[in-house]
Amino acid sequence: MSTKTLAVAAAALAVIATAGAAQARDQIRIVGSSTVYPFSTAVAEAFGKTGKFKTPVVESTGTGGGMRLFCSGVGETFPDITNASRRIEPSEVEFCTKNGVTGITEVVIGYDGIVFMNSKAGPDFALTREQMYKATAKDVVVGGKLVPNPYKNWSDIDPSLPKEPILVYGPAPNHGTRDAYVELVLDPACGKQPEIKAMDKDAGKKACRTVREDGAWVEVSENYTVIQQKVTSNPAALGVITFSYLDQNRDKVKAAPVDGVIATYDAIATNKYPVSRPLFFYIKKQHVGMIPGVKEYVAEFTSDKAWGKEGYLADKGLIASPDASRKEQAANARNLGDLKM
Fold first, then answer.
1. Which secondary structure element, helix H or strand E, spans residue 242, and what is its range?
2. Class of 26-111+277-334 per CATH?
3. What class, spelled out in words, does domain 113-276 have in CATH?
4. What pLDDT, in 10s, does the model give residues 61-75?
5. What does residue 181 show for φ and ψ, rounded to 5 degrees?
6. What is the pTM of this model?
7. Does residue 258 contact residue 128 with C-beta atoms inside 8 Å?
8. Which residues pair with 242 in a beta bridge?
């Protein structure tokens, strides 16, 4: 090959390399939970205002959808961080590993509660988890047998409840809030039934976790605003949402006590409220250094000015973890500690 040909080839490679560099992503991409979305967005905006890095792109895809995107591969076409309103599942870790995502850091950002809300113009509810199971499960135990759910009105379940048709707007299966509803409400209330305990484990789990399909439970795949709009237009209906969303919309909706406990910041932070859960985000360690600003964004999120008890995320409804836990989680995030299942 002549010197001229070599020079042309080298120049062509330089152009290709330059074009590739120009196309390289220089903006953090975050996906996942609609519950964590407002917190992540607030951090992204604060982070962007520093001027050192571009404001991250945050997408609300639902926890399950975010995990699928996050775990689909390594490289600029895949997200750097995914938010979650439940912990990553072993099957999702396996999917990550299969696609080369082998370094993951888990960060617990705080807590939230699941509330059962209705319009402020509607009747007052005081509920138990067992009543919610009876209201929303497809099949329930009646007279010692598992039968199709016969309850039409709330008062059919308990005379103390309103004489109103059962209508519950709940999150679709792609939401972490739906997973939490299953794990914190349906599983414990249903699983304690002797008839369920006597069943095959898989059959019992399916019986507990399958919701009604007769119109009493209506799945909403959009965000919580849609659920709030539904219950506002139908005061007798209930909606399954998060405490953080309720806290931002108390002028429109109210929440029912659950098992005698009212959802408050302190009740959730101290685990007295029975339907509370931690919130997370997950970092793809292989993207640290590949995508500018990942470590710096994480540092902003895990700073006391953001997630502390008096931080700006508290104004968005985040319930802060105890001081010692925040310190431990911040250190783990800073050191990009490996995920431990």
1. strand 238-242
2. alpha beta
3. alpha beta
4. 989 999 999 999 999
5. -60, -45
6. 0.77
7. yes
8. 114
